[in-house]
Amino acid sequence: MYELTIHTVFCAAHAIMLRGEREPVHGHNWRITAVVSGPTLDDDSLLVDFHALERALADIVRPFHNNDLNRTPPFDRTNPTAEMVARHIADSLASRLDADARSRGVRVTGVSVTEAEGCVATYRT
After folding, report:
1. Which of 55, 85, 104, 113 makes the best surface tag, with the fewest CB within 10 Å?
2. How many domains does the chain have?
3. Domain encompassing residue 96
4. What is the torsion angle, in degrees rounded to the nearest 10, for the CA atoms of residue 42, residue 46, residue 47 and residue 53?
5. CATH code for position 92
6. CB 36, CB 107: distance < 8 Å
7. What are the tens digits of pLDDT across the range 76-103?
8. Sign of the C-alpha dihedral computed for residues 1, 53, 6 and 122 taken in this order
9. Res 53: pLDDT
10. C-alpha span between 72 and 41 (Å, rounded)
11. Do 12 and 69 meet the contact criterion of CB atoms below 8 Å apart?
12. Which helix or strand (DSSP H or E) is residue 116 part of?
């Protein structure tokens, strides 16, 4: 099994609902780690192109950067917890893998979101 890991960071605010109460709006430097895995390489001996993966991840988080997640789709309808941010990014990244990669069994195996030092939420697929 081969595995690639990419990272990005974006700055955004949010206020989550906790037990029916909305917490105050506050910001984070959200650190994203995405992992893609697969059993075979392509004809160029790549699992996937790092740069293509980085571009896809950048496109996914671009709408969140310097915004309030509570006002940014899909979190204008969903509690913008670190767990839900991780799931959204994983699902979005999976949908952007090219057909060749998918045909070789390449998949997003996890996305971790570090909201604050020592506080990491991971969504595994």
Report:
1. 55
2. 1
3. 2-124
4. -120
5. 3.30.479.10
6. yes
7. 999 999 999 999 999 999 999 999 999 9
8. negative
9. 96
10. 36
11. yes
12. strand 107-116
